[in-house]
Write a structure and sequence with these properties.
Layout lengths: L2 E8 L11 E8 L5 H12 L4 H6 L4 E9 L2 E8 L5 H5 L2 E4 L1
Antiparallel strand pairs: 1-2, 1-3, 2-5, 3-4
């Protein structure tokens, strides 16, 4: 089924943004997700909800989720509230 790469960006410290000293990312096998979480992820790629809401929320985290489907890399950026807990749980922080 493939793998998701998840990056947490933004927030007060500007995680993952240019010049940031902290990288927050993880990977998750799609096959390891529950059926409900797989459906939520698919819905995010079909309709990347709240992109405007995410841009307007100061100091809020956003998540950049990337997958390869049919040989093409696809990326969406969504607010934290739209991300299933299983994806948030795989994130680890790394000092650069």
């Amino acid at each position: 089924m493939g793998k998701l790469t998840i990056e947490r960006i933004g927030g007060l410290a500007g995680f993952g943004l240019p010049g940031s000293k902290v990288q927050s990312r993880g990977e998750q096998e799609i096959s390891a997700l529950s059926a409900a979480d797989r459906a939520s992820v698919e819905a995010l790629f079909r309709n990347p909800v709240h992109s405007q809401e995410s841009a307007q929320a100061r100091d809020a985290f956003r998540y950049r989720i990337t997958r390869v489907k049919n040989g093409q890399e696809q990326t969406v950026e969504v607010p934290e509230s739209a991300v299933p807990p299983a994806l948030k749980a795989c994130i680890t922080d790394k000092l650069l």
